Structures are given as C-alpha cells and as structure tokens.
Amino acid sequence: MRAVAVFPGQRTVRLVEHPAPRINAASELRIRTLEVGVCGTDREICTFVYGSPPADFDYLVLGHEALGEVVEVGPGVSRFRLGDLVVPSVRRPCSHAECSGCRADRQDFCFTGDFTERGIKMTHGFMTEQFVEEEKHLTFVPPELRDVAVLVEPLTVAEKALAQVWQVQERLPAWALPAGASAERGRGRNAVVLGAGPVGILGAMMLVANGFKTFVYSRSLPPNPKAQLVESFGVPYISALAVSAEELAERVGNIDLVYEAIGVASTSFKVLKVLGTNGAFVFTGIPFPNPAISVEADQIMRNLVLKNQMVFGTVNADRAAFEAAIRDLGIFKRRWPQALQSLFTGRYPLEAYGDLLLGKQRGIKNVVTLA
Ligand code: BGC
C-alpha cells in the first residue's frame, strides 16, 4: 500500500510501499481510508522536531485526522457493519496496570506518558490506503456528514476543552446547568478564541452553538479570508496587530472564557492578563520551544487570586468528545453550510504530500483524498 512516511533518522519524508494491515483480534476492523486532514502537528513532524516511529520501523506513517469506510469486521465487533463511515481517535493507552487514566479508557489523561498516538507517537497513522483499528477507538459517522467528517478530529480538541470548562466552572453557582436547560449553556457569557486556524474556527462555531457571545482574536490584519469566514457566522474578528489585549477586553466585557488555539505564548499571556472575573482560560496549542519571553507575571498572579481565575491545558480527546464533534458538525452544517465548506482549502491526491507537508502553509484545511 502507498503511504506517506517520515524517516526521522534520514530526515526525509517520502511515499513508501507499506505492508497491508490484517485483522489480528476479534474486536478489530479493517478500514479503507477516504480522507486525511493535514494539520500543524503533521507539518511539525516533517521538520523532525516532533513525532517518532514505532519501535520496529525506521519510519512513521503520518496522518491522524481521518475518515474511513469499514471493509472488514472481526467476529467480536458489534457496533459497526460493512460500508459504515467511521472516524478513528488518535491516542492509544499505555500498558501500565497502575495508570488509572488508560485503564479507564481515558488515555487522554495517561499518567505515565507511555501512551502512543496514531500518526504522531510510535504508532502508524492514516495517510495510507487502509488501516486496522479496534472497535472502541472508532466513532460512527452518519452518511450525511461524509463531506465534512474529516473535520471531526480537529473539532474534538474544542469539544474536550469545553467539556472540561463545564466541569471546572461547576465551581461557580451561576454556571451550574439548570435542570432541563437546553444546549445553550453559554448564553450570557463572553468567549474569546485565540487563533483562526481550523481548531480556532471550529472552536468558535462550537462556542456560538453553545450560546456564547464569541470573538476571534488572531494575528493577521483584516480583510483576510479567515476574518471573512468567522464574520460570516456572526463572530467579530479582531486583529492582535491592530487591537491590544486591553482594548480587546474593553470591547468584549468580562471575558468569561478564553479558548486558546493560536500556539503563540506571547499573545496568549497578554490575553491571560485580561481574563475576566471568575473566568477560565484553556490552552490547546503546543508551541515550538522558543527563547524565553517576559510576561506580566505579578499582575497575572494577582488576577488569578483576586478574580478566582482558572487556567488549564487540555490535550487529545476521549470518545465522548468524538461523539460531541459529530453531533456538532451536523449542527454547523445545518446552520452555516457555506462557512463550513469554506474551511476546506483543497483536496489533493496522496502524491501532493510534498507540497502540503513541506511547502508553504496555505489556506485553512488541506485534505488528502484516497478514495
Ligand atoms: C492531535 C492530538 C495530539 C496532539 C499532541 C494534535 O495535533 O490532534 O490528538 O494529542 O497533537 O501530539
């Protein structure tokens, strides 16, 4: 099978002939890959600063944002049939008996660090024609989401973040969900999204769908296609080059939630300084290790205490986040069909990997199409 492979030892990225996968356990399925999204993590792995091949390989098959179709089911599989569309999750559990995260199927909270990640850390990914996966790591995709379901994985970043925000903010009397309340739990709250890449834009859609008054704060000056896109679903786009964090806070009012998807520490810590009273700030970006920067640490620390603020990071995603992402993509598709389609910059064959992974970053979401 053709596969896009990263050879960290040789510092090359190329198409390889990769062995076709076989079902080895009753609970496994064989999946034909339909589409794979390209993200910043993939591009970083191709600079050899991140990612690692499986122990017995000198290369890693790339790709962790996939959509596929079931072509074979093991005898113990109960939730899927041939022809079903599925999305795989990324992280796989460590093997340590004492890891309460992994043993509870919450490898996103692995304690040992010995988890693996498909297409990233010690397990091959999905930029290849077929893959085999255990049933519990797959989520069903309704056929009507075929054209957008490759966005599920990046949306899970936001879904897990928001699920954590709800839990964290249960500390506040006013955030508790009233009995029988609708999905619009964020109504009356202000949210700021940092960054206008796919994870930021999808996060902004999710926050609007949850009732938050949402703003996107990102670097580039408007007009630009990302600003146009977020404004098309009613979210003001504010450029960090034109508007300071203090001015942002004046415009927004009490910043109840910051969803960071920009991966830039300097912008993030400037906005952390203006987080509102009782606010939560959730980090999802993984910046490249840059030289140290100075931040207004005393002011941030005063605010954290005197304003009861909460700052936390979130990585990867659990099954509930995948299910929430599929439900929300359906909502986005009904509410903002045009905006959702505009996230896609282009769809390309596997052979275009060089340009997509090593060339200049272009547009919003590029997708490799295999079928
Ligand atoms: C993926 C996550 C992963 C993280 C760190 C992200 O691009 O979406 O699943 O945990 O990279 O490797």
Care to describe what's here?
With 371 residues, the chain is of the alpha/beta class. The protein folds into 2 domains: 2-141 and 343-369, Quinone Oxidoreductase, Chain A, domain 1; 154-313, NAD(P)-binding Rossmann-like Domain (Rossmann fold). It has helices at residues 40-45, 100-103, 152-169, 198-209, 225-232, 245-252, 265-272, 297-306, 319-335, 337-342, 353-358, and strands spanning 2-7, 12-17, 28-38, 60-61, 65-73, 85-88, 91-92, 116-118, 122-123, 130-134, 138-141, 190-194, 213-218, 237-239, 257-260, 280-283, 310-313, 344-348, 365-369. Strands 3, 5, 6, 10, 11, 18 and 19 form a 7-stranded mixed beta sheet that branches. Helix 3 (152-169) crosses helix 4 (198-209) and helix 3 crosses helix 9. The mean pLDDT is 96. The site of beta-D-glucopyranose has 12 residues, from helix 3.
Give a summary of the structure in a few sentences.
By secondary structure, the protein is an alpha/beta fold.
Short key terms for the protein model shown above:
371 residues, alpha/beta, Quinone Oxidoreductase, Chain A, domain 1, Rossmann fold, 2 domains, seven-stranded mixed beta sheet, 11 helices, 24% strand, globular, binds beta-D-glucopyranose
Record the SSE blueprint:
Elements: E1 2-7, E2 12-17, E3 28-38, H1 40-45, E4 60-61, E5 65-73, E6 85-88, E7 91-92, H2 100-103, E8 116-118, E9 122-123, E10 130-134, E11 138-141, H3 152-169, E12 190-194, H4 198-209, E13 213-218, H5 225-232, E14 237-239, H6 245-252, E15 257-260, H7 265-272, E16 280-283, H8 297-306, E17 310-313, H9 319-335, H10 337-342, E18 344-348, H11 353-358, E19 365-369
Parallel strand pairs: 8-9, 12-13, 12-15, 13-14, 15-16, 16-17, 18-19
Antiparallel strand pairs: 1-2, 1-4, 3-5, 3-10, 3-19, 5-6, 6-11, 7-8
This protein binds beta-D-glucopyranose (BGC).
Residues 39, 41, 64, 90-91, 117, 120, 153, 157, 286, 315-316 line the site of beta-D-glucopyranose.
